[in-house]
Amino acid sequence: MTAPHLLLRPQAQPPAPRRGRDRRARTWPAPAGRPRAAGPAPRTAVVGGGIAGLAAATALAERGVRVDLLEARPTLGGRLAGWSTTLADGSTATMSRGFHAFFRQYYNLRGLLRRADPGLGMLVPLPDYPLQRRGGARDSFARVPRTPPWSALGFAALSPTFTWSSLAGIDPVAALPLLDVRVPEVYERLDGTSAQDFLDAVRFPEEARHLAFEVFSRSFFADPGELSAAELALMFHIYFLGSSEGLLFDVPAEPFPQALWDPLAAYLERHGARLRTGTAVGRVDPLAGGGFEVAPDGGPAEAYDAVVLALDSGGLQQLVAKSPDLGDPAWRGAIGTLRQAPPFLVSRLWLDRPVRADRPGFLGTSGYGPLDNVSVLDRWEGEARRWADRTGGSVVELHAYAVDAGADRRTVEDRLLAELHRIYPETAAARTVDVRHEWRADCPLFPVGGYGDRPEVRTPHPRLVLAGDLVRTRVPCALMERAATTGFEAANHLLQGWGVQGQHLWSVPTAGRSAPLRALARRL
């Protein structure tokens, strides 16, 4: 299959504002073409209403393509969807799969959201992103410089965990790959090594390891022993050594549907897109004369000129299994090898008394059993704040990533609550008005040696494309930003075939920031 870099070429000066602070951020211009599709406009099915599907649908609909977005769930947003729930006190709340950080490096995701709100007023900044180890040591990013290498030096100087004496034992030669991260070269170099083995080779201090690296690997809901070291190195480049946007982030000021997806849905509908939620697709069949027949479960099949599959790995595998004429044996085999990350838990508690006022809105944790972070939602989310103001209570969310698949779920839920009481003792006296536990296991795993089997945007069918955070791309990005980026890339591929101008993309720099260190890293 042809690599998607043929669709996009990096250049130093962007053709449009990147809306970030990093002067070295890169733009990836889309192929030129007409501003809109010539009539009759092609008809495209976008299967999946998460970030990737919404990005693809947006780029296509803006350019006059007739878009049907089909989402199996009743709401948009994918893993950032929200739904209404009634609490024990009779009030209504919006539940979700939990906290997500909108980093300033997420240029393409933020560009998608700007369609509905050019000023991004739906996002509010958190003043800090503290990380706490058992015993009380706490690291902060609030005063750390944002531009490398001063970011790394400043963090080491200010951190109680990263002491100069503990860092003296690091093997600088083994750490050099972190200073010149390129895609796909980083995968060629490190994909055969686990994140854990890479950290061991670097001799990274154990007391600082979680705060510096595992916080990134666990963002993938994976244990460092399972995760590819290439993905870990890419994350470190995106957030710390390669970008000057920093590690502080924004969060939605209201629940996901109200802040993000309802406004974007209205924008899409104004551009002629049909949003068909509650519509699961059971089969996609290539047609002899070109195009595809898309068959919703329980409904009549419809013909489309092109299809975007923007599904999670499990959903993609199921659809491909039910669509025996899609792809070729090699492509279908690669789809079959995709793996899911271990289960994770989000517990949201509505408490009858407030969390202490000096507690941060978000706290990453290490050494507190399965607990990975604590969010006090009423510090930034309007709906939670209104509930807390009305009741005198607070809304707290707990996350446990990469839980053992065989663990007893009730035991893990109880352990999270016990660790919350240990970190914030005032919560031990609070009564739980209501609680919701969300167990999920649908995030992609990026295992050691798995990069070569990950699918690309292009498929054996010229007008069938893939999008999502599981999809390979030469643009350095991850997580939500990878979903948005590949969604736009999928649209660009189809638009190029129709002679239509696509969507320009942006990314963090595509190489290390220091020329001498880049040269040294390439020689070793």
Explain what you see.
- The chain is globular, with a radius of gyration of 23 Å.
- The strands form six sheets. Strands 9-8-17-18-19-16-20 form a seven-stranded mixed beta sheet, sandwiched between helices.
- It is of the alpha+beta class.
- It is built from 16 helices and 22 strands.
Number of strands: 22
> Beta-sheet strand percentage?
15-25%
Uncertain runs: 1-17
Total DSSP helices: 16
Helix content: 25-40%
Rounded mean pLDDT is 90
Order of strands across the main sheet: 9-8-17-18-19-16-20
Q: N- to C-terminal separation?
A: 30 Å
Q: Which word captures the global form?
A: globular
Give Rg in angstroms: 23 Å
Key attributes of the depicted protein:
524 residues, alpha+beta, seven-stranded mixed sheet, 16 helices, disordered N terminus
Layout of strands and helices, then pairs:
Elements: E1 26-28, E2 43-47, H1 51-62, E3 66-71, E4 82-86, E5 92-96, E6 102-103, H2 107-113, E7 123-125, E8 131-133, E9 138-139, H3 150-158, H4 164-167, H5 172-175, H6 185-190, H7 195-202, H8 206-217, H9 229-241, E10 249-252, H10 256-270, E11 274-277, E12 281-286, E13 292-296, E14 302-304, E15 306-309, H11 313-321, H12 329-336, E16 344-351, E17 362-366, E18 373-376, H13 382-391, E19 394-400, H14 409-423, E20 432-440, E21 464-466, H15 479-497, E22 505-507, H16 515-523
Parallel strand pairs: 2-3, 2-15, 3-11, 8-17, 15-21
Antiparallel strand pairs: 1-22, 4-5, 6-10, 7-10, 8-9, 12-13, 13-14, 16-19, 16-20, 17-18, 18-19
Helix pairs in contact: 1-15, 2-15, 7-9
